[in-house]
Known about the structure:
The protein is α+β, with helices and mostly antiparallel strands. The chain has helices spanning 3-17, 33-45, 55-64, 87-101, 119-125, 131-175, and strands at residues 23-27, 48-52, 78-83, 107-112, 115-117. It has two domains: 3-128, Alpha-Beta Plaits (2-Layer Sandwich); 130-176. It has six helices and five strands. It has a five-stranded antiparallel sheet with strand order 2-3-1-4-5. The longest helix has 45 residues, at 131-175. The chain is elongated, with a radius of gyration of 28 Å.
Amino acid sequence: MSKNVKELIVKDLSTRFGGISEAVMIDCGGLNAEDSRVLRAHLRSQGLSMDVVKNTLIRRVLHGSGLEFSKQALRGPTALVWGGADAIVASKAIAEWRRKNKRELKLKGGILAGKPLDDVRTEQLSRMPGAQEIRAMVVGAVAGPLIGMVSVVNNTLCALPRVLQAIVDKKNAEGA
């Protein structure tokens, strides 16, 4: 590939990946064409994209945006999975695809909040709750005690007329 072509490719990749603050890199060497197609369809259904890019070119693009990865992370066939809400969604989607298809697909690294991650930390992302799950946990933690308090107040208000009626009935029974 000529130097001019590489520069054009790097420029195009920089515009596409330049603002990425969340992504996952996978080793796509063991995928055949059908597996790749199925994986891309699975990722697309979750709002993610996968691009296979030459390591030297992706290294230039990431270096231009201030991200440095180890040479080991960018060795062999590499695909960049990006898009969606965050890198957790991407790593969970890949882990789900691995479980469903019983295939080994190694996570090589990632980018979370604009900071590079190694393969171990990227693998840990797939076991973390996603942003929506964390929001649901927070809402549940806040709403639980409030629901309890509302039910106590509601039961107290519902019991008040019965207590007052019992007092009236007792007074009437004593007066008669």
